[in-house]
């Protein structure tokens, strides 16, 4: 038998029809630079192989490799995607009085959406072309899918997501190790920012529906439907190819319907099916440029500013994608229709309640469209319909990923954006972004010092800074994040700065990261020599101007000719930069914070004060009774209140209530320290009053308490 491999022959440019040889990584037409490319295959050979059936092949979309754009099967990056169930929607059939409605359940994909097909084939294509870094703009699900597959292929991924993308999807993407950049703008703006970012850094940009892998991957939905449908209709028809009359999908940019349609057209061309299904494009009314153009009978769509809560479907400017879908519509029939957010939410509830399918709102859009198309007679009762159940994502627990894994970019407000107009402030947003993706690790066993350094640096530039309070912790963060710069203390318990530097030097991945040493230690010539192998500069704590240190960091980071993120190449000569005239030492730079301790037991009060004073310079006042406490709070407006619950004349709960009613005092954070065993109701009450931190007196842990107080004083 002929070996199973791709039968790709040529690439055709959709702009100028020029045909040329395929090569891994192809991304534009050599004749006109056009990016809309189409892969062509040796269909005769494929038809011969496929007409005998595909029994015994691998159970993933790669079973259709003859019609996929991969030259070297060894390079395939897979998690067993594809081959999702095709299931009869019996309850929906009953409700709509229609005999043949099927659900193509794409929720069973590795990251729970049909975008896994695209990610698998696109990441395989990158892998084959030797591309190791990629930029992608996404409305959410492609981000998660690409993040997972890129992780598998060791490809660094930069994701540009609009701030409307659900936080759970951002966290999930970050969990896979992708760099997540949140753009406060529309999806079309995020795409522009991503493209500019990729161009500036010369990183591969994923071109979605324009590029070959994405569209080709979606053909496999058609292949699977055509191989499964016959046996869903009549079990004895197993092994026969059969096409439905309709394929319905919720649409944003349109890569799904473009690919699925091409897949059916290929099968039809090879004589395997007897018709090319009609495509039903369902958009959400708040972002329906395709539907508007279709209903006006126009071959080109005008861009819109999305106004929908279903942000996964927020391509406001579909461009050539619509033109191609319109051509298909004119050739084979089909329909485009919009549903409201509310109709989609209604369909979502109904589908879950009746069929047992929990889907995300974007997917429900297709089912709301199905209802309308059947009820309006656009889909006739004798027609077989397949609806794409395109996705269902699961939230990543908030506590797994912190907010630091997300970078924020602010552009003009989406409502002010004009489609097609140049993006105001994009240049400065991108410059800021360079700084925002510049990572610094600050290591100091004294949390006060590390925090101060972080604050000073962040006051100057929006760097992403991670603090560690021990060398092993710092080393771990450095290995995880490969930062652009490290600022480290020398004298630390467990492992000192010298050892840390030696560890960094040993590993080729960390050997070139510049390290600025800030230390209180008097350095011997021997110490200096040891440091000189890795440290960029050494600063003596307490004897330099903080301003100078900040300037030095900025300089070090931009020292390699402007390429900030790769500043790690720029290891400068070691210098001992001790400023002649210290202006503001680390200790002096701290603002003294006022704490009011409301505690009637003098022993406890003393104990708590002592614990807190060890941490930082604080001004701690103590009062023993409720009314007096309120007076002092009003007069002093402390930065933090530490509250005992059982005290004379007014208890802690009453004090809290009084505080929360006073809008001047409402924002003061409160920590409760009590010997009382709190009931659930009491805890709930305290939480409802904004108290997040409650301590039992007998379980006080100095370190943790200090950290808590610090966090509240932030
Ligand atoms: C769950 C889901 N459904 C539908 C769509 C729309 O797909 P297309 O890109 O084919 O327009 C998306 C796109 O992100 C999606 O994530
Ligand atoms: Zn061309």
Secondary-structure-based class equals alpha/beta
Main beta sheet: 6 strands, mixed
Rg, please?
31 Å
Q: Classify the beta-strand content into a percent band.
A: 15-25%
Distance linking N and C termini = 70 Å
In the predicted model, the low-confidence regions spanning at least 5 consecutive residues are 560-590
Number of domains: 3
Helical content band: 25-40%
Per-chain topology:
Layout (H helix, E strand, L loop, with lengths): L7 E6 L5 E3 L15 E5 L1 H8 L35 E3 L1 H7 L4 E5 L9 H15 L3 E6 L2 H13 L2 E7 L4 H9 L3 E6 L2 H15 L2 E2 L6 H22 L12 E5 L4 H15 L8 E7 L4 H7 L24 H13 L1 E6 L1 H15 L5 H15 L9 E5 L16 E5 L15 H11 L2 E5 L3 H14 L3 E5 L2 H11 L3 E4 L8 H10 L8 E5 L5 H8 L2 E6 L5 H13 L16 E2 L16 E6 L3 H14 L2 E6 L2 H11 L3 E4 L8 H10 L8 E5 L5 H9 L4 E4 L5 H12 L1
Parallel strand pairs: 5-13, 6-7, 6-9, 7-8, 8-14, 10-11, 10-13, 11-12, 15-16, 15-17, 17-18, 18-19, 19-20, 21-22, 21-23, 23-24, 24-25
Antiparallel strand pairs: 1-2, 1-3, 4-5
Bound molecules: pyridoxal-5'-phosphate and zinc ion (ZN).
The site of pyridoxal-5'-phosphate has 19 residues, from α4, α8 and α12.
Protein architecture, described:
The chain has 714 residues and is an alpha/beta fold. The protein folds into three domains: 77-415, Rossmann fold, CATH 3.40.50; 438-576, Response regulator (Rossmann fold, 3-Layer(aba) Sandwich); 593-713, Response regulator (Rossmann fold). The protein is built from 23 helices and 25 strands. A six-stranded mixed sheet has the order 4-5-13-10-11-12, with helices on both faces. A six-stranded parallel sheet has the order 16-15-17-18-19-20, with helices on both faces. A five-stranded parallel sheet has the order 9-6-7-8-14, with helices on both faces. Residues 560-590 have low confidence and may be disordered. The chain binds pyridoxal-5'-phosphate and zinc ion. Zinc ion binds at residues 13, 15-16, 18, 29, 31-32, 34.
């Amino acid at each position: 038998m002929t070996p199973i491999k791709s039968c790709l022959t040529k690439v055709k440019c959709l702009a100028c029809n020029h045909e040329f040889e395929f090569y891994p990584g192809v991304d534009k037409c050599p004749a006109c630079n056009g990016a809309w490319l189409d892969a062509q295959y040796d269909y005769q050979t494929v038809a011969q192989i496929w007409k005998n059936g595909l029994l015994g092949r691998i159970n993933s979309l790669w079973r259709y490799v003859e019609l996929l754009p991969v030259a070297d099967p060894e390079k395939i990056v897979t998690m067993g995607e594809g081959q999702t169930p095709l299931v009869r929607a019996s309850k929906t059939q009953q409700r709509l009085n229609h005999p043949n409605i099927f659900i193509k359940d794409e929720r069973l994909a590795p990251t729970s959406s049909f975008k896994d097909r695209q990610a698998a084939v696109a990441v395989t294509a990158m892998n084959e072309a030797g591309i190791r870094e990629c930029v992608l703009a996404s409305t959410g699900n492609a981000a998660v899918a690409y993040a997972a597959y890129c992780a598998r292929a060791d490809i660094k991924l930069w994701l540009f997501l609009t701030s409307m993308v659900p936080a759970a999807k951002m966290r999930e993407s970050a969990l896979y190790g992708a760099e997540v950049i949140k753009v406060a703008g529309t999806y079309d703006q995020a795409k522009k920012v991503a493209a500019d970012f990729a161009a500036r850094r010369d990183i591969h940009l994923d071109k979605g529906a324009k590029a070959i892998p994405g569209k080709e991957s979606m053909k496999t939905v058609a292949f699977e439907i055509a191989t499964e449908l016959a046996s869903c209709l009549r079990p004895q028809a197993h092994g026969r190819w059969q096409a439905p009359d309709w394929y319905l999908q919720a649409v944003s940019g349109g890569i799904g319907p473009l690919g699925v349609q091409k897949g059916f057209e290929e099968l039809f061309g090879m004589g395997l099916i007897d018709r090319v299904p009609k495509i039903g494009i369902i958009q959400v009314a708040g972002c329906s440029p395709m539907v508007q153009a279709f209903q006006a009978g126009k071959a080109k769509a005008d861009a819109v500013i999305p106004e929908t809560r279903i942000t996964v479907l927020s391509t406001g400017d579909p461009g050539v994608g619509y033109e191609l879908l319109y051509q298909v519509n004119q050739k084979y029939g089909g329909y485009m229709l919009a549903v409201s957010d509310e109709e989609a939410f209604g369909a979502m509830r109904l589908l879950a309640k009746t069929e047992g399918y929990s889907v995300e709102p974007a997917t429900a859009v297709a089912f709301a469209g199905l209802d309308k198309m059947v009820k309006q007679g656009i889909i006739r009762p004798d027609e077989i319909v397949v609806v794409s159940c395109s996705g269902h994502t699961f939230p990543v627990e908030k506590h797994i990923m912190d907010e630091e894994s997300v970078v924020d970019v602010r552009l003009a407000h989406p409502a002010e954006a004009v489609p097609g107009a140049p993006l105001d402030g994009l240049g400065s947003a991108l410059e800021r972004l360079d700084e925002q993706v510049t990572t610094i690790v600050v290591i100091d066993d004294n949390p006060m010092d590390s925090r101060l350094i972080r604050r000073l640096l962040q006051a100057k530039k929006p760097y992403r800074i991670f603090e560690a309070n021990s060398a092993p912790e710092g080393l771990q963060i450095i290995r995880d994040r490969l930062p652009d710069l490290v600022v480290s203390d020398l004298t630390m318990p467990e492992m000192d700065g010298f050892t840390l530097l030696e560890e960094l030097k040993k590993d080729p991945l960390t050997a070139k990261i510049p390290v600025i040493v800030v230390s209180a230690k008097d350095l011997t010539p021997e110490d200096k020599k040891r440091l000189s192998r890795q440290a960029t500069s050494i600063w003596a704590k307490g004897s330099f101007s903080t301003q100078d240190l900040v300037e030095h960091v900025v300089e070090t980071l931009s020292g390699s000719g402007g390429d900030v993120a790769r500043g790690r190449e720029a290891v400068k000569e070691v210098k001992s930069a001790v400023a002649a005239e210290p202006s503001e030492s680390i200790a002096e730079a701290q603002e003294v914070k006022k704490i009011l301790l409301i505690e009637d037991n003098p022993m406890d009060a003393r104990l708590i004060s002592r614990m807190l004073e060890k941490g930082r310079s604080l001004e701690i006042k103590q009062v023993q009774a409720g009314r007096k406490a309120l007076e002092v709070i009003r007069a002093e407006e402390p930065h933090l209140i530490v509250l005992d619950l059982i005290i004379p004349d007014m208890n802690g709960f009453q004090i809290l209530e009084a505080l929360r009613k006073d809008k001047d005092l409402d924002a003061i954070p409160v920590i409760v320290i009590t010997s009382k065993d709190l009931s659930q109701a009491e805890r709930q009450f305290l939480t409802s009053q904004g108290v997040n931190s409650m301590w039992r007196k007998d379980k006080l842990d100095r370190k943790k308490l200090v950290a808590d107080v610090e966090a509240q004083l932030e």
